[in-house]
Design brief:
Elements (H helix, E strand, L loop, with lengths): L2 E3 L6 E3 L1 E4 L9 H13 L4 E3 L16 H13 L6 E6 L15 H15 L4 E6 L22 H21 L2 E7 L3 H14 L4 E5 L12 H9 L2 E5 L21 H4 L9 H16 L4 H10 L4 E6 L4 H8 L8 H13 L6 H4 L27 E2 L2 E2 L23 H20 L6 H14 L2
Parallel strand pairs: 3-4, 3-10, 4-5, 5-6, 6-7, 7-8, 8-9, 9-10
Antiparallel strand pairs: 1-2, 11-12
Helix pairs in contact: 1-10, 2-3, 3-4, 4-5, 8-11, 13-14
Length: 450
């Protein structure tokens, strides 16, 4: 399997990375251990985890179990030195750890120590911040993303503080490199700038969502990656299983992620199945396996360091490993580009239903941008189990999960007013006759907030 540089660290990582977020829930320990061994045998030298794993659901009882399972494998086999190990520090709002404290110099050292203890190792190759303290447009927050409430000075001061703490860990030998996750081009550029100006580990990678059906990385972040040698670690390269085709025509296989999380973290929408159908047709037309096509396509991207895949069961892992043998023809790549133009940005339950996105202001106490608010009817909060008294099992306030009828009228009035004030401008440049729809929208807004 081909190896790619991990930023400027000197480390080389396989183009496929074993993700472990199901280790300890959907994937029992014995199966997880077998997967690690088989992945290494198949040429994978890169394993990714996080202190908050496993998911589906996240809970106080299982927090850290994915790291523990990997640690047990390390201890039992003595093979820790054979692979690159990455883990993550949870961002602000994760109530099960540090009472939801933001990432800072006070949290970094003890959090690393806890991960080292669970992983049964004395060093972590790549230490990542799971989501920014200031928030993110990831996890479908792009539909309503508004960074105007951020405090630039506080953000930059926190970055300086964290880099100093990370540098101390590098000096101690507990971590070798530093990476980001769910990050933006501006945020990454600031981490790079501060590290160069003041010292501290240089960002080696960004772990963001990327697949045939989620290509937000293709513009500003792509440019940053290529010019700054900060590779993408793509999570959900199979679109949480959508690109396998197993969820087409309303199918929900037993034990699948969709069976546990019906909205797939806000990815479920009529448009996404149309997009998947287009990619499945390309694969069928060229006699390709859709899983292999999706992963092989990731390898063609100029900014890709590694694509992180998850396998609930061993047959899925075996299937994924075979994708390394496939090289896509230019004809297939051209058809994929045409399908992307026809089906851009298909994710987003709220947008697909014609609903206004949930305003960020309603998401009190959440890790901004990490927990998806669009799953109002699924019994899940951001894909994680909801507990009693309107609280997520991860301890996050679930006020945003209320139905739209329960959202304060003041908020909906403001949203409706903004919608109606902006729309006529666009209408005037196209079809003036559609102004009647604005009148109806105003009337509807008045009725709903009466």
């Amino acid at each position: 399997m081909k190896l790619n540089p991990l930023g400027r660290t000197g480390m080389m990582v396989s183009e496929l990375c074993l993700g472990t977020m199901t280790f300890g829930t959907q994937t029992p320990e014995a199966e997880a251990h077998a997967q690690i061994g088989r992945a290494l045998e198949g040429g994978v030298n890169f394993v990714d985890t996080a202190e908050m794993y496993p998911v589906n659901p996240v809970s106080a009882e299982t927090l850290g179990n994915s790291e523990r399972i990997i640690g047990n494998w390390n201890a039992q086999t003595g093979r820790r030195g054979e692979y690159i190990l990455a883990t993550k520090h949870s961002g602000a709002g994760m109530q099960h750890v540090r009472d939801g404290a933001a990432i800072s110099s006070r949290t970094i050292a003890p959090t690393i120590e806890e991960s080292l203890r669970r992983l049964k190792t004395d060093y972590i190759d790549l230490y990542q911040f799971h989501w920014p303290n200031r928030g993110s447009y990831m996890f479908r927050q792009n539909w309503s993303y508004d960074p105007s409430g951020q405090n630039r000075e506080e953000t930059l001061a926190n970055m300086e503080d964290c880099l100093e703490a990370l540098q101390r860990e590098v000096a101690r030998g507990t971590i070798r490199a530093f990476g980001l996750s769910n990050e933006s081009a501006w945020g990454t550029a600031q981490w790079l700038r501060i590290a160069q100006a003041r010292g501290g580990p240089r960002v080696a990678s960004i772990q963001n969502e990327y697949s045939l059906v989620c290509r937000m990385y293709d513009t500003d972040l792509a440019e940053l990656s290529v010019n700054e040698d900060v590779g993408l670690l793509a999570f959900s390269p199979l679109g949480t299983g959508l690109l396998t085709g197993k969820y087409q025509d309303g199918a929900v296989p037993e034990g699948s992620r969709k069976a546990i999380n019906p909205e797939l973290g806000g990815r479920h929408s009529p448009r996404v199945y149309d997009a998947v159908s287009a990619y499945l047709e390309i694969a069928k037309r060229h006699g390709l396996d859709p899983v292999h096509m999706a992963l092989a396509w990731c390898r063609t991207r100029p900014f890709m360091a590694s694509a992180i895949f998850g396998a609930t069961h061993m047959p899925q892992l075996e299937h994924v490993l075979k994708s390394a043998e496939l090289e896509l023809s230019q004809e297939v790549l051209d058809e994929i580009n045409a399908a992307h133009r026809a089906h851009p940005m298909p994710y987003g339950a709220a947008a697909a239903r014609g609903e206004a996105p949930t305003p960020l202001g309603l998401m009190a106490n959440s890790p901004p941008g990490y927990f998806q608010p669009g799953e109002r009817d699924s019994g899940f909060c951001g894909g994680f189990d909801r507990g009693r008294s309107g609280q997520c099992a991860v301890g996050l306030a679930c006020s945003w999960r209320r139905s739209r009828a329960e959202v304060p009228c003041a908020v909906r009035k403001a949203r409706a007013k903004l919608d109606c004030e902006v729309k006529p401008v666009a209408i005037a440049t196209s079809i003036s006759g559609r102004s009647v729809s604005v009148t109806r929208r105003r009337a509807s807004a008045r009725r709903s907030c009466r």
